[in-house]
Amino acid sequence: MKIYQGLTDFHPPKNPVVTSGTFDGVHVGHQKILNRLQELAQSKGGETVLLTYWPHPRLVLQPKNNSLRILSTFSEKISLLNAMGIDHLIILPFTKEFSQMSSEEFIEKILVDKIQTKTLVIGYDHRFGKNREGSFEYLQAHSHLFGFKIEEISRQDVDDLGVSSTKIRNALVKGDIKTANKYLGRSYRISGLVVKGQQIGRSIGFPTANIQVEDQYKLLPKDGAYAVHVEVNGLLYKAMLNIGDRPTVEGDKKTIEAHLINFQGDLYGQVLTIYFEAFLREEKRFDSLDALKSQLMGDREQAIFIL
User: Fold this and answer.
1) CA-to-CA distance for 256 and 52, rounded, in angstroms?
2) What is the CATH number of domain 185-306?
3) From 2's CA, which of 80, 84, 114, 163 has a CA 20 to 30 Å away?
4) CA distance 119 to 264
5) pTM of the complete model
6) d(Cα 114, Cα 293) in Å, to the nearest integer?
């Protein structure tokens, strides 16, 4: 996949088949659009082009009152789109100035002049341009002026999947990992650097990797204990993970701590990727470290059974 920061270095391929959007999470609904994009490109002897935006538009347009948390960091999105087989990824910087571009300008300056689009594929509810004024109906009515064909993924096709980025976010906030993973078509993941913690887990036989997620907008699932897989240097390990304030040890900030089952070694300074598989239980305060240890033994057995 070729990646372009803006349109300056982009040279249109033969018969570009194009789609655009934020594609946060690259969930099964997005995958349906991308699969159709590839089908059309193959049938026309063309190449796929995906236009996306960074930062996320809501982070730019609502900076002071924005609770948005993203499903995929930009590096994760690039990896997912590459795995889908996209030929060209164009990253357009999303600014307030860009948001004022009319749908006519967007079509003429970007889709027609810069990309030389031959076929445009969009989701049924996708809109573009200032105030989201551009719609499928608008494109269809003026397609003879643009010189490219338009295909819409129908409402029924998308609704049959019952998926949206918002539904996935809501599921994760509730700890409903099963639903989130179903809609994503894979396990939800986070990545982060292992930093030094208080090493309390080590003292009770459950050493943990204290993980620091760098992207402040990355969505963390609900506080609690989870069964997860942890990727270390390309290898997957069964693990259990806790997200929360650690009330038993008077924690004063939210932490993410993973106990890798049957792992021996030093993880400090490494970047780990966590794949969420199931919610085990709510976070709670225990009367003693012995009580916490007893609970963790049960959590480990449950995690092994699930994984």
Assistant:
1) 30
2) 2.40.30.30
3) 163
4) 53
5) 0.89
6) 61
Smallest CA-to-CA distance from 244 within 225, 230, 227 is with 225
User: 211: burial class by Cβ within 10 Å (0-12, 13-18, 19+)?
Assistant: buried
Q: What is the pLDDT of residues 168-190, one digit of tens each?
A: 999 999 999 999 999 999 999 99
Distance CA 4, CA 11 (A): 10
- Token look-up 């609502």 returns 62
Q: Tell me the one-letter amino acid at 42.
A: Q
Chain Cα centroid distance, residue 46 = 27
Q: How far apart are CA 101 and CA 53, in angstroms?
A: 14
| Distance, CA of 150 to CA of 136 (rounded, Å) | 8
Which residues face 49 on adjacent strands?
A: 18, 88
pLDDT one-digit tens code per residue, 15-28: 999 999 899 999 99
Catalytic residues: 257
- Mean pLDDT value across the chain: 88
Pick the CATH number of 2-163 from 1.20.1540.10, 3.20.20.70, 3.30.1130.10, 3.40.50.620: 3.40.50.620
What is the pLDDT at residue 103?
81
User: Using one digit for the tens of pLDDT, what is the confidence trace for 73-108?
Assistant: 999 999 999 999 999 999 999 998 988 888 888 888
d(CA 208, CA 117): 51
pLDDT at 50 over 70: yes
Q: In what order do the strands lie in the sheet with 16-20?
A: 2-5, 88-93, 47-54, 16-20, 119-123, 149-153
Query: pLDDT grade, residue 144 (50/70/90)?
Result: confident
- Domain positions in the chain are 2-163, 185-306
